[in-house]
Amino acid sequence: MPEQAMRVALKVDVDTHQGLGQGAPRLMRALQAEGVTATFFIAMGPDNAGRAIVRVLKNPGFLAKMRRTGAVSMYGWRTVLSGTLLPARPIALSFPQVIRALEAAGFEVGVHGYDHVRWQDRLDALGDAGVRAELAEAFEAFRAIARRPARAFAAPGWRTSAAALRALDEMKLDYRSDTRGRAPYRCAIGGEIFATPEIPTTLPTLDEVMGGPGLAARDAVVRFYLERFRDGELNVHTIHAETEGMGELDTFVAIVRGLKARGARFVQLRDAAAAIDAAALPACEVVRATLDGRAGWISAQGEPRERTAALSA
After folding, report:
1. Average of per-residue pLDDT values in the chain
2. What pTM value is reported for the model?
3. Domains, the chain, ordered by start
4. What is the DSSP code string of the chain?
């Protein structure tokens, strides 16, 4: 394999009860059939996906996204109303056998928070104690199921804060994948630079682009993605068990096959992290940004600290 070959890290976020019970096993079988690997990040607590209805009242952009992606037909009413009109169901504790099967099959598994909706909607309001409680619950649930400590974390909704980064640093994880960006870096917020390597998602997600201009047909979506993966770089593509693992599985498989035809090498994020010299990574500001097709803010890789200092001088 040439040194400048394309590296692809598939990051599978599992946000809901349905995603772990149905979407994750489907993705596991598809990945095995294609002979490629991936990293799964699983929300370890309750499925409160129905609280997205509250987001509709606060953020019209989220309603537009639900319409554009066909969220109700994709997820079903049980998930759409989970945690509001219908009781929240536990995610990880409902399907410990799926988590163990993923690990037994050689896939990497990490933590995607505890209450996904609470973290995504109320991160700033949680405060230091609330953030630490969420992380403690999530990592303890993972340890109980996997019978080992988790070594990686991916923030729900790509939302992080100084309090979250500080608490995660104390856990001495191998890496985090909390933001959207260009390449691995160390997070900086205000006067703090955090030690744990950050490996950001580098491509848009399917739920951000599907149904957009010129992207109604599956072939157009596949072409859109294949044009955006870059040779000689680590391409981190986040997919969702509730999207690619359900109604868009054929689209995802077509993308994987297109990447294989281009000679892509699929890697797990832990392998990418192991190859990183953390001390040599640039320290980049973590900024809050918005993305086309996604409602609300996300945490993104900003300018390197040295460049930021030079610009302000």
Report:
1. 90
2. 0.89
3. 7-175+213-275 (3.20.20.370)
4. --TT--EEEEEEEE-SHHIIIIIHHHHHHHHHHHT---EEEE--SEE-GGGHHHHHHH-HHHHHHHHHHTHHHHH-HHHHTBTTTBPPEESGGG-HHHHHHHHHTT-EEEE--SSHHHHHHHHHHHHHHHHHHHHHHHHHHHHHHHSS---EE--GGG---HHHHHHHHHTT-SEE--SB-SS-EEEEETTEEEEEEE--B-S--HHHHTTSTT--SHHHHHHHHHTT--TTSEEEEEEETTTTTTTTHHHHHHHHHHHHHTT-EEE-HHHHHHT--GGGSPEEEEEEEEETTEEEEEEEEEEEHHHHHHHH-
